[in-house]
Design a protein that fits this description.
The strands form six sheets. A seven-stranded antiparallel beta sheet has the order 12-13-14-15-11-16-18. A three-stranded parallel beta sheet has the order 3-4-5, sandwiched between helices. Helices cover 32% and strands 20% of the residues. The protein is α+β, with helices and mostly antiparallel strands.
């Protein structure tokens, strides 16, 4: 895509992320280009590493107004592999309407079976002819199929970018001049003070009034476009506009160490020794005084949390890098009340790490691992909770126990809903475990085989029974006392009713 030679074996795997810029016409000198138009737009490429440890961090850079190119190893794309579905679910969760192109690379090394009809029906945002079999090392050979498919891919990419670009922000000349100056300066300066930014806007006549402040509007837009990154909620970072590449590469350098416990001193050592350049080969410098900004940004992104609040050396924990082994737990699962989020196709990899960061002050005796955490609240009786994720079954289960469990469940439920709200197209259902104590035994007793079976019910059905004033409801042939089942959620029902029941029609059971 960049007009550079492809040498087999010369490229390492993508570590974290690579960011590049290019034109469709790679021979055109970008600095001599007289104007920007759709004949040859600047393309920003964000290439994400596919290793599992990076998955939870991808969501901070995914946007709805992009074109997504899913690149798969052509040797591993057979029916049932699940890899295409996994990544297509990622895209759908964050950008359900974004155009998608699916590329199988190294197609010369094995037969590829796409199951295209199934994928098209399941993911309608795949472009009409959006499947391409490529072999980058063979593209220079005349007359081969891969060369034809690559040309088709480029044209379809151009078309998809035009489609996305039609809804992009239109700049005034003054705003565009500010944008151009920031783009010119950011690779070399890394940080830009707030005063310098305001002075730059003032030179273009963009000044704050009593009614509006065009500088803030423009800054927010630049942040969304990835021109700068701005953290107004972090006091130390509010004075600076960060070079996005400086921050992005810094975060991934830390993640790539695969150490879940890091100190600020270690981060300074790692980054000071790293040889990192941006897409224009400008070196990215990481002075010790600035490295703390990266750690604070990771806190803001909920990638990491600070261990302890005292003085001395700052230490941070990165949940997505923790051990996968579950520690010994003393949590009474059998006696606890339980609630479950069951996802149709994808348990978001960032969901549990973000929950751990959000509730890290409640972690009970450091019982935390990559796929779960044990919590104890200091309020309302000290209720305990166990959160456990299962990527294979695509479920997140919350067990709650102790005095005040209804209030603590309400808090945790809202935490989960807050994260899922960023992925509005992600399909899932909510289930509640039905306690044995809530069963209502009929004259014939319980159905054979169900007396000791753990049963779950769709939470929406239990809520409807409550709304209709039903004292009991049936699940798998067993009647349950509605109020006893709802006992876990007494404080949460208004919240859940608002977020779930209002989706239906008041006059029926939709």
């Amino acid at each position: 895509m960049h007009g550079e030679p492809v040498v087999e074996g010369a490229e390492d795997k993508t570590v974290g992320i690579e960011i590049r810029e290019s034109f469709f016409d790679a021979e055109l000198d970008r600095y001599q280009k007289a104007k920007e138009d759709w004949e040859n737009p600047i393309i920003h490429f964000w290439d994400f590493g596919g290793q599992v440890m990076y998955h939870a961090t991808h969501q901070f850079f995914l946007r709805a107004n992009c074109v997504y190119i899913l690149v798969l190893d052509g040797r591993k794309t057979g029916v049932g592999s699940g890899e295409a579905d996994y990544w297509l679910e990622h895209v759908r969760a964050f950008a359900p309407k974004a155009p998608v192109l699916v590329v199988g690379n190294k197609a010369d090394l094995g037969d590829m079976d796409w199951d295209q009809n199934r994928l098209r029906k399941k993911y309608p945002n795949i472009r009409p002819y959006g499947f391409y079999k490529l072999a980058c090392t063979k593209l220079k050979e005349p007359g081969n199929y891969y060369r034809h498919d690559f040309a088709r891919f480029k044209e379809d990419l151009r078309s998809a970018l035009e489609e996305v670009g039609m809804v992009q922000q239109k700049f005034t000349q003054k705003e565009f001049d500010v944008l151009s100056e920031l783009r010119r300066r950011s690779p070399h300066e890394t940080f830009l003070s707030k005063k310098d930014y305001e002075r730059l806007c003032a030179n273009q006549g963009l000044l704050a009034t009593e009614q509006t402040d065009p500088r803030k509007v423009l800054l927010d837009l630049f942040d969304k476009l990835g021109v700068v990154i701005h953290f107004p909620s972090i006091p130390r970072l509010d004075e600076f506009l960060l070079n996005p590449r400086w921050l992005t590469y810094g975060v991934y350098q830390i993640i790539d160490k695969r150490n879940p416990h890091v100190t600020e001193a270690e981060v300074v050592e790692w980054l000071s020794r790293a040889k990192i350049s941006d897409n224009l080969d400008n070196p990215l410098e990481y002075p010790a005084a600035r490295c703390g900004f990266i750690l604070e940004a990771m806190e803001q992104f909920k990638v990491a949390y600070r261990v302890g609040r005292g003085g001395g050396q700052r230490t941070f924990e990165i949940p997505s890098l923790l051990s996968t082994d579950e520690p010994e737990l003393d949590f009474p699962e059998a006696e606890a009340r339980a609630f479950r989020f069951r996802f149709e196709r994808l348990l978001p990899p960032q969901l549990l790490p973000q929950l751990i960061v959000t509730r890290h002050t409640d972690i009970d005796r450091n019982k935390v691992w990559r796929h779960g955490v044990m919590l104890r609240t200091q309020h309302n009786g000290g209720a305990r909770a166990l959160l456990r994720g299962d990527a294979y079954d695509r479920i997140l289960t919350l067990w709650i126990h102790g005095k005040g469990l209804d209030h603590y469940f309400s808090v945790l439920y809202q935490d989960v809903q807050g994260i899922l709200a960023t992925m509005p197209e992600l399909p899932y259902e909510e289930l509640i475990r039905l306690p044995v104590s809530a069963r209502v035994e009929g004259e014939a007793g319980f159905p054979i085989g169900l007396k000791e079976k753990e049963s779950w019910a769709r939470w929406i059905n239990v809520l409807h029974a409550e709304q209709k004033g039903q004292k009991t409801f049936a699940e798998e042939g067993v009647d349950y006392n509605t109020k006893k089942v709802l006992g876990i959620m007494s404080e949460s029902i208004p919240i859940i009713l608002k977020s779930v029941l209002m989706l239906g029609d008041d006059n029926n059971d939709t």
